[in-house]
Amino acid sequence: MQQPYDPAATSAATSQGALVPVDQLILDVYATAPVQVRSRILSRLIAKVYAAAPPATQRKLLGHLLRPLGLLSLAVVADGIFAKILARSGWMEQNVSLEDVQAIQPGDVVSLVDYVLQVSGDAINGLAQLLMASPNLMGSVAATVLVTLLLQRARQSRLADRELD
To answer: 3-class SS at 33?
Structure first.
């Protein structure tokens, strides 16, 4: 049964009493937050999108996030769950089975993303294309906000690279 529309669930009141959509609030907070808080916002959003995604998309998300990490790195993330999965399925293929996807909790994804952000921010930015290719996710507020943030990050990264050249 579908829940009735609740404006409070998708909006928050400003000091003037006007409603502001939650997605805009997240974007505003992210824009003004310190780097550590931005990283936490991204990891939580990615985990939320992961939890809402169908198993095939979860598998693609994990594959993308695991790609920049080595087996030793993965041994320290989320109590080694990702290293165990890849060791069992064949490290070189980096295949995550649909059965393994079911064992991975959003908290594990948060740990993975936190680690990937330290190693390769570009790997995180690349998630935007993967998410945009999944039409069933783009109806989600979390996925829409995440794609917006990822595209902003990628654009800022390209601008910073140009300034260095």
So the answer is: coil
